[in-house]
Amino acid sequence: MKQIVLCDEGDTFGISKICKKYNLGVNIDNFYKPDYLLNNPNAIKEHLEVYKNIDICSIHGPFCDLNYGSNDTLIVEATLKRFEYAYEISCKLNCQNIVLHNGYVPGTSVLSETNFIMIEPSVFLIKLHLVFLSRQMSGLIYSIL
To answer: pTM surpassing 0.90?
Structure first.
């Protein structure tokens, strides 16, 4: 059965009300900011409380300045650490899907009337060999847009 999922765009309380009313799932956006959890140490607990009885279908992982395909090993290491962070958050939220964007560099995109358009899109799916995974999550999706 297909499910409709709303992206919360940081409006956890507003979106949770809609999700509860219409029995929808949610994609959590707040954790795409690498320092979000540092600045909000209770964020996991708060999200679990707000989204109690709502299917947390996916989280949006970090994406700024990341490039898994870089020739620079430091960039690749930083990218893997951010992907690892997203995985750890998804485990804590009992979420099986992570949306990851690869190759986005701030200032290289323009806003259009209908959507966010990349000037130089890097669209590809990366099959990550994540050594750090201590357990398998069934249905874990790495969506690199």
So the answer is: no
